[in-house]
Design a protein that fits this description.
The protein has one domain. It contains two helices and no strands. The chain has helices spanning 9-21, 24-74. The radius of gyration is 34 Å and the shape is rod-shaped.
Length: 75
């Protein structure tokens, strides 16, 4: 009677590791794209914020000029 030997676990482990690693590259690439997208959104948000702050400052200056002119005209 022959003894049956178990298959060495090393090839099975190697295959399992190879298969497990297949999806990791996609996850890393997706994270990199998402990170770049988030960075771009943050940059655009800062630009928009700067524009709005400039518009507010311009409006405040225009209002101050109008008040000054109104005061000067009333005297």
């Amino acid at each position: 009677m022959k003894k049956h030997t178990l298959v060495s676990p090393l090839p099975l482990l190697a295959c399992a590791l190879l298969m497990a690693g297949c999806g990791l590259a996609d996850v890393g690439a997706a994270a990199a794209v998402e990170g770049a997208s988030s960075a771009e959104q943050a940059k655009k948000a800062k630009e928009t914020q700067a524009k709005v702050e400039q518009q507010i400052a311009d409006a405040q200056q225009a209002a101050a000029d109008a008040r000054a002119k109104a005061e000067a005209d009333s005297q």
